[in-house]
Amino acid sequence: MPYNDRPQVGFSPVVKWGVVLVAAGAIGAIGYYLTRDTNHAPHLPELSTPVATQPAVTSEAAGDKQVYEDPAPTPAPQPLPDLDQSDATVLDALRDLNVNGLVEMIIPQEILRKFVRGVNVLAEGKVITEYRPVASPQGAFVADSFNVKVSGGELGEQQDVEQFRVSPKNYLRYTLFVQVVSALDSDTAVGLYKHYYPLLNRAHQELGMSKNNFHSVLIRAIDKVLAAPDANGDMILIHPKVYFEFADPALEKLPDTQKLLLRMGPDNAAKIKASLKNARVKLLQK
Asked: Which helix (H) or strand (E) segment is 168 a member of?
């Protein structure tokens, strides 16, 4: 069922989002499902702390052309199930990771196919509006309003102008997700990913969204998230009509997945990036 994950304003500001685990376990990354509103607002004074844009973490950032070899297969203690019959086995494997909240986040139908689709979309920095792999959290996006003094009018008198910023209360909406990702043991999770890789790559081939193998797409998805700038201080927002946007044009032009990473708050984003950096190293080890 399509849904929005763009911060909205109004009496019923429902913000729905989803999270893509960028690997079956400690490859946890995020895919945030946003919808775009192309209407522009009048310029408001920007009070946000400057955000330094970080260089891309791999050489393929400009063209996304880097191809990585499939991971080395791991000895399977038992035959892999058929892709169409894999949900129960995958859920059992995720339970064995013994991470509180992980299994409860997963939508238990077509787990591998949904995961593969989410990773492909995330690798493009785009959005996903349906067929999501995990359940949405409760609650709506939270923004705080405040007034700033600006000079205006013929006499140059001071006027109050209302502005908005991402509320620290909004960061709490991501607490469970961050706890799950941080608690994953990367060695165990990457081993699980390699075990199920033949099924993941088969689902990827069915999808036909990329000519590269799934492993290359997964690494690109991780790199897309890691390329998000770090942000500290207030994240100033405007709302032209229904949806909030970043007042800083440089932030508003970021891929949707990176913008929602910023909305998670600096501490949460740092924990997610640390987990992803560790997972990326393990994924590329022979």
From this structure: helix 168-171
